[in-house]
Amino acid sequence: MKPKVLILRTAGTNCDSETAVAFKLAGGQTDLVHIQNLISGKVDLSDYHILAIPGGFSYGDDIAAGILLAVEMRHKLSNVLEEFVADKKLIIGICNGFQVLVRTGLLPGLSTEKNATNIDMPQRSTLAMNTSTRFECRWVNLKTEVNQCIFTKGIKPNLYLPVAHAEGRFTAPQEVLDELENNQQVVFRYSNASHHSSDNIEYPNNPNGSDSNIAGICDITGRIFGLMPHPERFLTKWNHPRWTREDLPEEGDGLVLFKNAVDYAKATFHE
Amino acid sequence: MSTQVSEFEILNADDDELMRISREGTLSLNLKEMQTIQSHFRTLQRNPTDVELETIAQTWSEHCVHKTFKCIIEYSEPEKNTERIHGLFPTYIQRATEEIDKPWCVSVFSDNAGIIEFDDENNIVFKVETHNHPSAIEPYGGAGTGIGGVIRDSLGTGLGAKPILNTDVFCFGLPDMSYEDLPKGTLHPKRVFKGVVSGVRDYGNRMGIPTANGAILFDSRYTANPLVFCGNVGLIPRDRCDKSVEPGDLIVAIGGRTGRDGIHGATFSSAELDDTSENLGSVVQIGNPIMEKRIVDALLQARDRNLYRSITDCGAGGFSSAVGEMGEDTGAEVHLENIPLKYDGLAPWEIWLSEAQERMVIAVPPENLDKLMDICESEMVEATVLGSFTDSQRLQVFYEDNIVGDLDMGFLHKGLPDIVKKAVWQPQQHSEMQSRDNNIDDYTDDLLHLLASPNIASKESVIRQYDHEVQGGVVIKPLVGIENDGPSDACVVTPVIGKSTAVIVANGINPRYSDVDPYHSAAGAIDETLRNIIAVGGTLEKTALLDNFCWGNPDKPDRLGELVRAAKACYDIATAYGTPFISGKDSLYNEYRDTTTGEQRAIPATLLISGICVISDVNCAVTMDVKAAGNLIYVVGNTYTELGGSHYFGIHGHIGNNAPIVRPDEGKQVMESLSRSISLGLVRSCHDCSEGGIGVAAAEMSFAGGFGMELHLKHIPVDEDIPYDDFRLFSESNSRFIVEVEPAIQTEFENQMNGIPFGHIGKSIESNEFILNGLEGNAIIETTIDKLKSAWQTPLHS
User: Which CA distances in Å does A229 have to A132, A147, A169, A215, B39?
Assistant: First the structure.
């Protein structure tokens, strides 16, 4: 069976094509679906196993990044989303998608699994303006933390991926940060080239000034995952900024995240 | 007739009155054109309506019809007979392309962008535009709508290309100029710089198009007339490259609503700026990238379902140009009251001419309308039927059941009177500079100074604000090297992820040489573009060029003489290299006049050449950063004593008279041999020598790669001896490269270079020292790559 992936689009989404390529390379079957068609019921989310909210500038990121799409999802799709989450299906939000998930409250979610299925949960963290106060595109080192996340099962301890955003500084009240640490919900941290993310990681290694160098988190179930870096932009070695000078494997660091998701869906939803 | 429509009283007007009407209406029509219009309407025995006269003014504007490039020019230069040129464009640009006759050119000069073949499934489109006048007045909006406009050019080519890459080249005044020296009514270069970069950033990033190639130049003469070149590359299925219009097709507008923004943009940009231009707020458009993204999303779906037959963008002149051009061979009938407005109160001619952004016009067979409307609805983009194409050969405009404009298509498109312009070329003598070898035995400070000069210094702070990774296809990035911060010669894009077929995009621009001779400036811009393409792994065989001329007032014979010189070089050098032009644009009247003092300033004659090359295997691409210690460093291509217009002379306050000359026979051999060596995998890194010569190029390679170098100037290849260290080091001769080769490959590489001027000038070393030995064997530069890099990175850091 080929797991079905719904790549959600709206006005201003712009990483949908490469996210679809990533899931296809991973063995998934992808549809690009405009949110209008989910709201109208033309497309049924429950037909899918994975929901991907790609990067971009949904609705221009007016007000702040991801807010308008998050509000639309909370108000018009809460039932279908709750059902999707309750069915133990997967959600990934990349860059603008992460911003949306944080603003719906789906990430980091609540601290018990029972409540975590409720889309009407409060927003408990945010992705604020970078400390550099501007949009920046650069490659960053990531350290994989011990975590619950389905998407990162068994992956190598260090990844190299590009970021490209203006509003990526993850910040939350101390009790939320503590909870994330205690529940092993921190998936990726920005690190330096020698991969010591426990050190004080300074700009530009921490490209946006995130609290605790957090680059990606999951909910308590590990099935909802959001990150600022772009794994879909490192699928082959040619994406790497130094492929002309380093010996690199043909496959890029980002593909494994999509493979893990597809493998989970195959194992969980084999029909 | 509608009360909102007025007539221009021209039937009985004398010449003064005709010119008053043209001037006060921002029509930018000259007397002969006004007289032609007058006699046309005398035969009709009526005055033109405002809708009609405005439509003619837009269609005949320099911006839309490129009069200067098509008119007859009487050209003279010293000691030569006067030459009569029947159009610069047909004589020097179009003819070059025709003679080169590449089978992979699919569509040249006819559509909104040029089209070349890419692979079995897709073609590539490429267009570069300018948005200079608006950016001078409102940098953020002007630059943003510049990129928005050129994206719509790709979308309006064939049946619509998917935009895959943005490029941008800017020319600004000096960032450190004092506010007291600022010409009246102009913005400070720093403010223009910041606004333009932010505008391109916010539009390009929101559209999800990588911006991965460009340049930024500084010269005091750009203060009042900054230049903003925006380019877009698109990918289009091979069977979607043709368009046609059939009578009966519906005229459908897609996208944003129409407002009073951008009225008279086309005619405004066909005139000089002065110290009151800042008051012309309405001529600058307002951009909304998310609206444009919706249009792209909707139209590419409609294209793939074959729902429309033709498409063009609403750019200069708004609907009047778009509908007028699409219906040129058929006729068109438009009902202005159907057009959705941002707000009430627009007169019919304003609706018709508005350059409100993010609008496209398509020709839809009536049976496809419902399907099209469904797509537009689900993509949340407004689509409106404005009227239909007819077989009347007339452009008929209605407003609330009244006819407000009725023009013969033949007069509109062919009625422009022939003009003859005079052009004179008179070379200037400039102060010459002697070698400083007698006074100086260490050029380290000069090298540091050059690296820190704003034209050469790192543009990283700007580049990082652009998303150059989106779409996942940019595989040679604008910044390369061990710390991802060296200056790449060109970008390489694989538009289909995972497939090895790629396009290389590069540019060349060097207005400094224009001070000596615009011929050499244009020739050098082509050579530089080709060098950049070759340096990353391209070939001459598969390279196409775009020309963008930004000039002063072409009604002045000396400015036009410079334009003739540059156009001649375009023909000579493009044909010699076998690289055709596929598209181009000109922006003239880049002059500033102080209305109180009468002082007049023009920009330096500026030609931007953009190049695009298709390669079948991206694995053969190389970057400019030195890869390892112990490798051999070569200079390929002869150095001549050519420092006229060079940066080295520039930092010492001289222009000089020997600008670098392109010797295409020699250059072609150099580029073909090097290109072959790169494709055979013999080259580890390669960098083009341009601004700052061998000194700057070698330093950049060294610090980008993180290895030092030890080099000897006496080994660089020369045709005639150059007995001076500084001239060898900083001459900016064309067709030269610095190349890194592994010792084990030495023989094979040198065999490939047989018959080509090359010199093995030294090696890369493990330490961070950068040592350059002069002709007498003594070190004339002794520093570290950290110092070199810091000098290069600091000036434009924030």
Answer: 17, 18, 12, 7, 65
Asked if A242 reaches chain B (Cβ–Cβ under 8 Å), the answer is yes
CB contact under 8 A, B469 and A238: no
Query: Considering only CB atoms, which chain A residues are within 8 Å of B467?
Result: 135, 137, 164
pLDDT in tens, A115-138: 555 556 789 999 999 999 999 999
Which pLDDT value is given to residue A200? 78
Q: Nearest to residue B2, comparing CAs of B308, B372, B398?
A: B398
Residue A46 CA to residue A81 CA, distance in Å, equals: 9
Per-residue pLDDT of B166-219, as tens digits, reads 999 999 999 999 999 999 889 999 999 999 999 999 999 999 999 999 999 999
B100 HSE (CA, 13 A, CB side) = 29
Q: Which residue, B551, B521, B529, is CA-closest to B132?
A: B551
Evaluate whether B501 touches B614 at the Cβ level (below 8 Å). yes
Interface confidence, given as ipTM, is 0.95
CA distance readout (Å), B192 to B143, B187, B332: 10, 6, 41
Q: Catalytic annotation on B63?
A: yes
Q: Measured on CA atoms in the order B245, B247, B253, B254, is the torsion positive or negative?
A: negative
Percentage of chain B exceeding pLDDT 90: 89
Residue A3 pLDDT greater than 50, yes or no: yes
Is pLDDT of B572 > 80? yes
- Interface residue of B162, B165, B469 to substitute, partner A, most A CBs within 10 Å: B469
Taking the C-alpha atoms of residue B666 and residue B523, their distance in angstroms, rounded to an integer, is: 14
Q: Quote the strand ranges of B379-537, DSSP E.
A: 383-389, 394-399, 402-408, 420-424, 474-476, 479-480, 486-487, 491-493, 502-508
Token readout for B584 is: 């181009």
DSSP B90: I
A34 counts as catalytic: no
Joined together, the tokens standing for residue A249 give: 């494997």
Q: Is B449 tagged catalytic?
A: no
Residue with the larger pLDDT of the pair B279 and B581: B581
At B6, list the tokens.
């007025």
Tell which residue, B566, B548, B413, B582, has the closest CA to residue B132.
B548
- CA gap A97, A53 in Å, rounded: 5
Does A164 contact B207 at a Cβ distance shorter than 8 Å? no
Instruction: State both tokens at A252.
Output: 């890029």
> Which chain B residues have a beta carbon less than 8 Å from that of A34?
378-379
User: What tens digit of pLDDT does each residue of B103-122 get?
Assistant: 999 999 999 999 999 999 99
Run of H or E residues at B162: strand B162-172
A12/B378 touch (CB, cutoff 8 Å), yes or no: no
Contacts of B32 (CB under 8 A, 6+ apart): B417, B419
CA distance B759 to chain A (A): 24
User: Which helix (H) or strand (E) element contains residue B153?
Assistant: helix B139-155
Q: For residue range B698-716, what is the model confidence (pLDDT) as tens digits?
A: 999 999 999 999 999 999 9
Burial environment of residue B343 by CB neighbours within 10 A (0 to 12, 13 to 18, 19 or more): exposed
What span, in angstroms and rounded, lies between the C-alpha atoms of B578 and B576?
A: 6
Q: Are strands A214-218 and A186-191 parallel, antiparallel or unpaired?
A: antiparallel
- Asked if A12 and B467 come within 8 Å (Cβ–Cβ), the reply is no
A182-230 tens-digit pLDDT: 999 999 999 987 766 566 789 999 999 999 999 999 999 999 999 999 9
d(CA B218, CA B98): 35
pLDDT confidence band for B498 (50 / 70 / 90): confident
Q: Which helix (H) or strand (E) holds B739?
A: strand B737-741
Residue the block writes with tokens 């580890």: B684
Cβ partners under 8 Å of residue B7, min gap 6: B46, B47, B48, B49, B50
